[in-house]
Design brief:
The complex is a heterodimer. Chain A is α/β, with parallel strands linked by helices. Chain A has five helices and seven strands. Chain A has one domain: Rossmann fold. Classes of the chains: A alpha/beta, B alpha/beta.
Chain lengths: 193, 196
């Protein structure tokens, strides 16, 4: 899993007292509000967009994390989703979109092309958006499973709560190739004549 | 069956057909670049051939051969159901003087195909209405699909961030990212012009 903190992810924002007043501190309260109301800017360029659509669909629902509203203007968004390959020709566009977003802003790299260039190693592709803009969470995969993307979103929410700007990466939870206990059907190879 | 097409081209343009072959159901004819436009015009207009459709136009780089580039077109007749591949060779060792006639006056699909060929290989098409880069940006120098363009050379439009170890930013460990190397074949220009 990514860099989830050792403590519980729940933070008590409001502490009730006997006199009927509730006290809190501003910063956790602010972070709580920010993490549960992320307006996303889906900067979708390539095939990861299909997986992004399924993450926003009803099965792997996005909105239950508070991040319901996509805003296609960078002025109104605070989470920039880089979904898909960024070519060298697209890089100034991405840089400008990032610069137009108002603070506080976070960036999530969706897929391997956005994280590290993916399987592209050529003259036309930017090998990872972190060469152009700072990135907070990397969700590798080609494309990543929607569950992995939700892992990434939850990791980002945890980072927002703690005020942590150190980038995090999502690792696969269970690798089906190495885990025989997942209940997958083991096919036997037919013996060659 | 479309051997008839090769005979049609040979008979209409005697001496300009340098080579032809028929393999695996494909028919190919290699012509002199001087008759490039005339051959395609005849293939499109003559009712025996009736090639209404230009499927693709591209170029192949043979850096050890002279002329260097082989411009290839694929033609299809939708009514008669036959296909032909027409090739021609242009260009010298350094890739200059790779000029051939443009087919954009005959088929509209040739317009962008020729722009892509110019962008990636550097073949110039005389008579093209708007020959400029189509896939890459104008600031890009060189023609990247030529075999002597270094494979790892990027020309970024946005300067990369000034971060230490930008090649492997945290939290990528040594086994993450593209830790394997790339096999780049650097072609050196061969002085002799003998065909392989």
């Amino acid at each position: 899993m990514g860099r989830l903190s050792g403590d519980s992810t729940k933070t008590v924002a409001i502490e009730p007292s006997e006199a009927g007043f509730a006290t809190t501190r501003l910063e956790p309260m602010l972070h709580w509000a920010q993490k549960y109301s992320l307006f996303m800017y889906p900067f979708v360029t390539a095939c990861c967009g299909m997986e992004f659509m399924s993450v926003t669909g009803p099965r792997f629902d996005f909105s239950r994390f508070g991040s319901e509203a996509p805003r296609f203007s960078p002025r109104q968004a605070d989470l920039l989703w880089i979904v898909g390959t960024i070519s060298q020709r697209q890089a100034p566009v991405l840089r400008r979109i990032y610069e137009q977003m108002a603070e506080p802003k976070w960036v999530l790299a969706f897929g391997t092309c956005a994280s590290s260039g993916g399987f592209y190693d050529n003259y036309a592709t930017v090998a990872g958006i972190d060469k152009i803009i700072p990135c907070d969470v990397y969700v590798p995969g080609c494309p990543p499973r929607p569950e992995a993307v939700l892992d990434g979103l939850m990791l980002l929410q945890d980072k927002i709560q703690r005020g942590d700007r150190q980038p995090g990466i999502i690792k696969p939870r269970l690798d089906p190739a190495t885990n025989p206990n997942l209940g997958l059907v083991q096919l036997r190879r037919a013996s060659r004549p | 069956m479309a051997k008839a097409l090769i005979d049609f081209v040979s008979s209409r343009f005697p001496g300009a057909v340098l080579d032809s072959h028929s393999q695996h159901g494909d028919d190919t004819v290699v012509v002199d670049p001087k008759v490039w436009l005339a051959v395609h015009q005849a293939l499109r207009d003559d009712p025996v051939a009736d090639m209404q459709m230009l499927v693709d136009l591209t170029a192949v780089d043979f850096p050890r051969h002279l002329p260097r580039f082989e411009v290839v077109t694929h033609l299809v007749s939708l009514r008669l159901g036959h296909r032909l591949r027409v090739k021609s060779r242009v260009g010298d060792t350094s890739g200059d003087n790779a000029v051939i006639d443009s087919l954009s006056a005959l088929w509209a699909s040739a317009n962008w195909a020729e722009r892509e060929c110019f962008d990636t290989m550097g073949v110039t098409f005389a008579g093209h209405p708007d020959l400029r880069r189509i896939l890459l940006y104008p600031e890009f120098e060189g023609h990247p699909l030529r075999k002597d363009y270094p494979a790892e050379l990027t020309q970024p439009l946005v300067p990369y961030r000034e971060v230490e170890n930008i090649g492997k930013l945290p939290p990528f460990g040594p086994h993450e990212g593209m830790s394997f190397g790339r096999q780049t074949h650097h072609l050196t220009r061969v002085a002799d012009t003998a065909k392989d």
